[in-house]
Structures are given as C-alpha cells and as structure tokens.
From TrEMBL:
Source domain of life: Eukaryota
UniProt keyword annotation of Chloroplast present: no
Listed GO CC annotations: ribonucleoprotein complex; ribosome
Keyword Ribosomal protein: yes
Keywords: Ribonucleoprotein, Ribosomal protein
Lineage of producing organism: Eukaryota, Viridiplantae, Streptophyta, Embryophyta, Tracheophyta
Protein name: Ribosomal protein S21
Entry similarity comment: Belongs to the bacterial ribosomal protein bS21 family.
Length: 97
C-alpha cells in the first residue's frame, strides 16, 4: 500500500532508499562473480546515502567526553520537551472542561 502510493507520487526512489537503510543492503553473488556484486553494492550504497554517512563519520572524530556531553544535552532537551508537552496537555484538558 505504501509502495503503491509512493510510486504514484514519483517518490519510489526515496522510499526504497529508506527501506535499504532500515534493513541493510543485500547483494547476491551470481556465478561466483564478486566484482559484479561489489559494483552493485557500491551503487546501492551511493544511492541510499550510506556511503555519504560513513564518509562523514570518518572525517569528523568526536571524543568520548564530547559524546557524553552531547548525550547529556540531548537527554535534557528531551526531558524539557516532555515536561512542556505534559504541561500543555493539562492546560488543554482544563480548557476543554
């Protein structure tokens, strides 16, 4: 159903790349032809954006201490957002009553 809607809208390519990122890339080796399989895998990686993500991760090294700080900030941001959502929900419930 989702694929049919995506084909009609012409965004089948983006849907297929999203599915490839979720479940990984699989390539069949036919007649023990590894070169052809590797070329196909490289094309699939380029089209799905995985190759770009890998290169980006290799270019920028983040120290463990920076990772911890970023994780802590993300957690605080998530908690603040949840608190705000909870407050807004109580306000909306009170207005409905």
């Amino acid at each position: 159903m989702i694929q049919a809607a995506a084909i009609r809208r012409g965004s089948f390519f983006s849907l297929s790349s999203q599915l490839q990122q979720c479940r990984g890339i699989r390539v069949k080796v036919i007649n023990s032809n590894l070169d052809q399989a590797l070329n196909l895998m490289q094309r699939k990686m380029q089209s799905s954006g995985i190759e770009r993500m890998i290169k980006q991760e290799q270019l920028t090294h983040v120290k463990n201490s920076e990772k911890r700080v970023l994780a802590k900030k993300n957690l605080e941001r998530k908690i603040r957002a949840q608190d705000l959502a909870r407050k807004l929900k109580t306000i909306l419930v009170q207005k409905v009553r």
